[in-house]
Amino acid sequence: MNIYFACSITGGREFEAVFQTLVNIMLANGHTVPTAMLATPAVRELEVLAQPREVYQRDITWLENADVLVAEVSTPSHGVGYEIGYALGLGKPVLCLHQKGRTVSKMITGNSHPLLRVAPYETVAQAEIVLMAYLSELQLL
User: Distance (Å, rounded) from C-alpha 113 to C-alpha 128?
Assistant: First the structure.
């Protein structure tokens, strides 16, 4: 499956280790993740070099070609919120994972779109279980 992974870049990198784990799990299970570099510590340096229009066009192309969007939404991000709305508008399934107890926008938690799933996790291992179950479910459809 071609998976667009979304996470905060400029809004904060507190959950970077979780980002890396999620991306590594997807890659290890044979999925394509064109946004895998978003989980790396070097992403902020790489993104500084890119022009805003280039980033937008690149990311929209990746999103349009993706089968699913997986987002870690524990840290608020305008970009991630935009990507979630865009993906749902394209009719793509979206999984939003967040650390239990974190405040997540009500625009996400209150959204009853049938293609949106929001799932809290307490540990990285629990996030992995939720992610793998979700992807397995999608492959059965």
Answer: 23
Q: Rounded to whole angstroms, how far apart are CA atoms 34 and 6? A: 10
Angle at 103 between CA 136 and CA 33, to 5 degrees: 35
- pTM of the model as a whole: 0.93
Residue range 53-78, pLDDT digits in tens: 998 999 999 999 999 999 999 999 99
What are the pLDDT digits (tens) for 4-34?
A: 999 988 777 688 899 999 999 999 999 999 9
Amino acid code (one letter) for 79: G
Could you give all domains of the chain from N- to C-terminal order, each with its CATH number? Answer: 3-140 (3.40.50.450)
CA-based nearest residue to 128, from 11, 13, 21: 21
